[in-house]
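Methods — Computational structure assignment.
A single polypeptide chain was analysed. Its primary sequence is given first, followed by the predicted tertiary structure written as structure tokens.
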Amino acid sequence: MGITDDAIEVRAQGWRRLAALHGLIETELERRLQASHQLSVVEYTVLDALSRQDGWHMRMRQLARAAALSSSATTRLVTRLEDRGLLTRILCADDRRGIYTELTPAGQALLDQARPTHDKALTESLREATKTPELESLVAFIQT
């Protein structure tokens, strides 16, 4: 194995560790958010992203990037959340093709209820991950 091969393997190991930590965290977040608030992780992510905007709205493509979803998946997700009364779509006044997505009061209320669950699950998942030697240094890095 050459130097280049070693460097590739180190990066691959790092990527596998990151993927393992992400999977561990996402699984726990999904379980707790669904059980307590009937929200998926990606639904929570969308509500959270919208809550952090000035004026509390985003263009659909910005929302897709924030949630790491395709345009079509974002449209389906927004439709589901809109049907639940958690957000609404607004036509952009200066660009009729543009659509904004905005959190409703019900969406903000659900997010406010879910945030402590999310934060506790994240904290506990990271603490649990430190018990796995391969993940301990990654968790330490994230928390700095």
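Note: Strands lie at 57-59, 87-91, 99-103.
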